[in-house]
Design goal:
Elements lengths: L23 H8 L1 H21 L4 H14 L1 H11 L5 H71 L2 H12 L7 H17 L3 H13 L5 H13 L3 H13 L3 H10 L2 E12 L21 E13 L7
Antiparallel strand pairs: 1-2
Helix pairs in contact: 2-3, 3-4, 3-5, 5-6, 6-7, 7-8, 8-9, 9-10, 10-11
Length: about 325
């Protein structure tokens, strides 16, 4: 077995005095394996932190990425291969010291940035809470105003102060919203009544039309709209509305409709009636008529057609 014997050749006879010395670089690789693992773990942590802070502070993220590169064995090997030099531990310590200083500086900037973002979020939450509170306060004021005006308007309508009631109802309309269907219906009903009482028939028709669009027009209200149509000279619309109110079962509308559009009849022809009560199939007028039905008992039974004076379907 061969062994290396150190100092076998005297120093002044050596051609390559350093050739047979042990490589310090190789020894360092064997001796710092635990340190390498620590640096590699630190580089992984720095890289992960860099990903987490990337969206908040780019400078801090980049400094951590560069630190992770120089701290890892992989980064050291890439650097040595690219620049063809030995990245000594002392040089590595110096570079990492500078990078640590830069990372600390950018870390303080990152901390300030996070504090600013948190403050902005806090102020945004406060502003949102204030906006919600203000909106609720305005909504409470609106509802109170709506209820007050409606109550006063109903009282004026009940007392017969129709002009004042109309004014109050119009004031309450400023505070009503489309979502409050019941209040809207009540408002249009009362306004229509007030306009009718003050003989503002066209304005009343508009209120009844709005009720019809909402699908809440009753038979009585349809009848009232018909009367308004009559007052403004729209006779055909009045007759159509009377017919609809009558069909809805409102009896005053039926009576007025029968009066304004009475049932008429006209003679169509004369029917031959047999003695057994049947009509002659051919309506024969000569000999042999109803020969199989006991003869003719009525030669000229009048047949009428009943119709309305005006055809509402054609109006």
């Amino acid at each position: 077995m061969k062994q290396y014997v150190p100092n076998l050749i005297s120093a002044h006879h050596r051609v390559l005095p350093d050739y047979f010395k042990k490589s310090a670089h190789k020894d360092s690789k064997r001796n710092v394996s635990a340190g390498s693992l620590l640096w590699n773990a630190l580089s992984v942590v720095a890289a992960l932190v860099a990903l987490l802070v990337l969206g908040i502070h780019l400078g801090f993220s980049l400094s951590l990425v560069v630190f992770a590169f120089f701290a890892s064995n992989w980064g050291n090997r890439r650097l040595e291969q690219a620049l063809e030099f030995h990245f000594t531990p002392s040089l590595k310590a110096g570079v990492l010291g500078v990078l640590s200083f830069v990372s600390v500086l950018t870390g303080f900037q990152y901390k300030d940035r996070v504090a600013q973002n948190n403050e902005r979020e806090r102020l945004a939450i406060i502003a949102e809470q204030k906006a919600i509170a203000n909106s609720k306060r305005k909504e409470a004021i609106r509802l109170d105003s709506l209820r007050i005006y409606l109550t006063q308007a109903d009282a004026s309508l009940k007392k017969g102060a129709y002009a004042k009631a109309v004014w109050l109802y119009n004031q309450s309309a400023r505070f009503a919203t489309a979502n409050e269907s019941e209040d809207q219906r009540r408002l249009h009903e009362r306004l229509a009544t007030g306009y009718v009482r003050t003989k503002a028939y066209r304005a009343a028709i508009e209120q009844y039309d709005e009720l019809a669009r909402q699908g809440s027009l009753t038979g009585e209200q349809t009848y009232q709209r018909a009367l308004c149509y009559q007052q403004v000279g729209r006779k055909s619309e009045a007759l159509s509305e009377l017919y609809r109110a009558s069909e809805a079962g409102y009896k005053p509308a039926t009576r007025l409709y029968d009066k304004q559009n009475p049932l008429l009849r006209k003679l169509l022809y004369y029917q031959t009636v047999c003695c057994d009560g049947s009509d002659s199939p051919s309506n024969a007028k000569g000999r042999g008529a109803c020969s199989h039905h006991g003869g003719v008992c009525n030669w000229n039974k009048p047949i009428y057609e009943t119709y309305r004076k005006y055809d509402v379907n054609g109006l």
